[in-house]
Design goal:
heterodimer; A: 190 residues; alpha+beta; 4-stranded antiparallel β-sheet; two-stranded parallel sheet; 6 strands; 19% strand; B: 441 residues; 3 domains; two-stranded antiparallel ribbon; 21 helices; 33% helix
């Protein structure tokens, strides 16, 4: 039931119909609108987690939780916002393969989060070079074609850049507020 | 029955229960994968599996999956290919790390020129369980002394605490009495008397677990015994001479669940006959070959001696160098001192201390200590023993080094590790070179 409830099935060439595969369904959502909407939810949730949980309950708030990369190996540890975002992506992957998303960067702390496909590389570079703009493209991975959207991930809070600038695995240590630090990549099979 | 190939050490016991893995005649790799996860999923979750399926299901890894489909356990752990199984009793390719981490030398000077097959074979990394091996953990536990003071295992939960948590009463010696007429088993009086004696010394006697609790599903007729105490008469129609593990499971649920997941009980879990010692693929004592494994094999009926179950029962059947060197080893000598009454129980090291360790579990608001009866969680690869077992008494560095030393393991840890794994050194060197802060928030 859970999977069915979340399923937004691709039925026509590139068009995505929320109502399932009814051939009479006339309304559909363009992939761009679909990924834009998903990104809006992701961004809002992540911002809320940062502000309402980490900031409020963390060391600079009530000091009740400890945001840490190794949160699950310490009492009162809490996932960092970027980790929370990844856990969301993993949770979605367990429920549906109708879309996937990931957080990537040209300067990743974990090298596995560097762009891998040509479209990812082009998209990540594009959002860095064109602040405020998104990137959309199509790519064939395996035997499937995907609509791939890349959204800029901007340093909106001091801890984001502090953590990345000071992490021993970071390849870049001069991020400033407002910099594009990476991108959210959302992929939909066509 | 024809098998397409000999099964591995991990599964040979249940090879006649085809549907344990082949749960459906139809379907693709997901069917087998689901069976793998049914038995091993919980352990992977507890180990915080470093490479869960979700890491690979993203289409961006399509090219990697073409080469090594890490979404499925059977890609690396092939069954019915016993001839290519490795030391750990399962198949494992040598280049699985290389496929994604081949450029590790570029970002870590210390990893340059390391052999491609050395990542997980040198005591540094583990594909699934890195709970004791991740870099910050190495740093946190660097520079600890080899031996902890005190070096102790968790104490068993006191009976009074357990009674409060599990909601049962404890009887005084005066209140203990058998609930069957002991002379009812004609011709077996001696046997019954011994059983009664053993039982009366056990915790069962003091917790109201009586003859019929285990031996009869239905209560017998009430009669008076020689002392005018009302007891239940024996009814042969519902008397079970040898109660099965399912009877134990009614009260000892967690313990039996662990037993059924482990090597001793997995046949029973799949509705097969009990594991016979002679069926084992590892060295076992010939004279124990006929023994069949259930709860009583180790705990012995009526007496339920947990001290004997933790060493003597193991040594009765197992026959490796490691096992046979136990009593002469530092661990075995500590246990001898416990048995001699000159050392606290928690300072002894038994077979179970390491392979079926005591673990703390939460029941409601209370914490109790129980024995993990699934030895798979503390066997292979041995790095997974570091945190739950070795570090109770030893430093992380000593533990890593000792577990990487095959000869030391064979001698049952008699002596010092003869090789040194540099993972903590590497972590310290790298940490010294970086200005890092983890106080961003």
């Amino acid at each position: 039931m859970m999977k069915r409830a979340l399923t937004i099935t691709s039925c026509f060439f590139g068009a995505v119909a929320i109502s399932g595969c009814n051939p009479n369904a006339s309304k559909g959502i363009e992939p761009k609108q679909y990924t834009d909407s998903l990104f809006a939810v992701m961004k809002a949730d992540r911002t809320n987690y940062t502000k309402l949980i980490i900031k409020r309950l963390g060391p600079k708030g009530a000091d009740a939780i400890k945001p840490n990369e190794h949160w699950d190996d310490m009492p009162n540890g809490a996932p960092l916002p970027a980790q929370m975002f990844r856990f969301g992506a993993e949770g979605v992957a367990e429920m549906t393969d109708d879309f996937t998303y990931s957080l990537q960067s040209l300067w990743p702390i974990n090298k596995q989060n560097a762009p891998r496909t040509p479209v990812e590389k082009k998209g990540l570079q594009y959002v860095v070079d064109n602040p405020g703009q998104n990137f959309y493209g199509e790519e064939k991975l395996g035997d499937k074609t995907y609509f791939t959207a890349v959204y800029p991930d901007v340093a909106v809070a001091a801890p984001c850049m502090d953590c990345h600038n000071n992490h021993k695995d970071t390849p870049k240590s001069d991020f400033k507020m407002g910099d594009v630090m990476g991108g959210v990549v959302i992929r939909v099979p066509l | 029955m024809y098998l397409i190939g000999e099964t591995t050490h991990g599964h040979h016991q249940i090879e006649m229960a085809c549907n344990a893995c082949h749960t459906s005649a139809f379907g693709g790799p997901e069917v087998i994968q689901s069976a793998c996860i049914d038995c091993h999923g919980e352990e992977l979750e507890l180990a915080k599996d470093s490479h869960p399926k979700t890491k690979f299901s993203d289409p961006r890894n399509a090219d990697r999956i073409d080469i090594l489909d890490a979404r499925y356990c059977v890609t690396c752990h092939k069954e019915h290919n016993e001839e290519i199984a490795g030391d750990m009793g399962l198949t494992l390719p040598e280049d699985y790390c290389f496929r994604c981490h081949e450029d590790i030398g570029e970002e870590r000077e210390t990893h340059k020129d390391l052999p491609f097959d050395s990542c997980a074979s040198a005591g540094c990394h583990n594909y699934h369980d890195n709970l004791a091996l991740y870099e910050d953990f190495l740093l946190k536990h660097a520079d600890e002394p080899d031996f902890k003071h005190p070096a102790v295992t968790p104490a068993r939960t006191k009976l009074a605490t357990l009674a409060a948590v599990r909601n049962f009463a404890i009887m005084t010696s005066d209140q203990v009495h058998a609930d069957v007429a002991l002379d009812a088993i004609a011709g077996q009086e001696e046997l019954v008397a011994q059983a009664h004696h053993d039982w009366s010394q056990s915790q069962h006697a003091h917790t109201g677990v009586n003859c019929l609790t285990c031996h009869a599903a239905e209560e017998g007729e009430a009669v008076e015994d020689d002392n005018n105490v009302t007891v239940l008469g024996l009814q042969t129609s519902n008397w079970v001479e040898k109660p099965s593990y399912e009877v134990c499971q009614k009260c000892h649920t967690d313990q039996v669940d662990g037993f059924l997941l482990g090597k001793h009980g997995m046949r029973l879990a799949h509705s097969l006959s009990p594991m016979k010692v002679s069926d084992a693929k590892i060295m076992m004592k010939t004279e124990a070959g006929h023994e069949e494994l259930d709860c009583m094999s180790c705990h012995s009926a009526h007496r339920f001696d947990t001290v004997a179950a933790a060493t003597d029962s193991c040594l009765t059947c197992h026959d490796s160098e490691h096992v046979n060197n136990y009593w002469g080893s530092p661990h075995g000598k500590l246990q001898q001192e416990v048995l001699a009454g000159v050392r606290a129980t928690e300072e002894g090291v038994t077979c179970a201390t390491c392979h079926m360790p005591r673990i703390e579990v939460s029941i409601g608001d209370s914490q109790i200590v129980m024995v993990n009866h699934n030895q798979n969680e503390n066997l292979r690869p041995n790095e997974k023993m570091i945190r739950p077992v070795c570090m109770k008494c030893h430093s992380l560095e000593f533990s890593i080094d000792a577990l990487a030393d095959d000869e030391l393991i064979e001698s049952n840890f008699t002596g010092q590790p003869q090789q040194h794994i540099r993972s903590i050194d590497m972590a310290l060197e790298r940490d010294a070179k970086t200005n890092r802060t983890d106080k961003a928030y």
